[in-house]
Amino acid sequence: MLSFWIGYGSNNIGGHGESQSNLAWQLPSIIQGIPAACLALGIWWLPFSPRWLVKQGRDEKALQTLAYLRKLPVDDALIQAEYKEIKAECLFEERAFAKAFPTLHARETQSVWVREFAQYWNIVRTWDNFKRVATAWLVMFFQQWSGIDAIIYYASNVFVNNFAVAFFVPPMFEAWEWGTYIFFAVFLAGGIVWVYFCLPETKGATLEEMDRVFKSHSGEADAIMLAEARRDVGLNPEPETVNDKVALDNGRTSQSQKSHIEEV
């Protein structure tokens, strides 16, 4: 929406047609470039993420970064708990990769590109994983083919903007006219049927309950492996982790708000 208004505001610079100034397209480009330039300059002052540092074996630096980000001393209980959680997650990911790709993991030197490709392949090489990826893909597929591009096509007229919003919708309107809406209506109807019969309900389900939602058991072995990793880094079976503290604080806040409402 913001880009439409920027385009609308700059479209009349210098008039229309041949008299239109080059600033009509240069100004939106400059405005879009300002945040990108700030990010390009500021990234040199950003610290490496604690997770990346742990994966590189730079644990001390990871602790220092966590302390810097949280504004707490390195030996603070929260810093130590969060560090151990990150350490356990990294250890779990390494063991899961070794289990899925033992030959690749056994190599002394590993290509980063090969390792990343293997991770992507892992999300579709089993039926349980493929079903989840396909579900996410189909949600976006039916959303895009519901006819939204045909509606957005008119945004150029609404905002007096000459930019092409879609590549294929204009020629479809020229060739099919009102048949364009029938074309998208077919996909919309198919999407409704798929959502009703195939899309699982995830409302109220936690990430750990996705196995139940998708009627699979692939997460059980991962849960055991993660519990072992947590134990190996020194986390208790029921640790008071950072997430636990956040949830506790949220609960206290909600209770306080409830008491305040009752008093009012």
TrEMBL record:
Subcellular location field: Membrane
Region (Disordered): 230-264
GO cellular component, one term: membrane
Parts forming coiled coils: none
Chain ranges passing through the membrane: 30-48, 181-199
Keywords in alphabetical order: Membrane, Transmembrane, Transmembrane helix
PANTHER family, per the entry: PLASTIDIC GLUCOSE TRANSPORTER 4, QUINATE TRANSPORTER, PUTATIVE (AFU_ORTHOLOGUE AFUA_4G14670)-RELATED
Molecular function GO labels: carbohydrate:proton symporter activity
Chief subcellular location: membrane
Topology relative to the membrane: Multi-pass membrane protein
Protein's name in the database: Putative mfs quinate protein
Domain of life of the organism encoding this protein: Eukaryota
UniProt keyword Oxidoreductase, yes or no: no
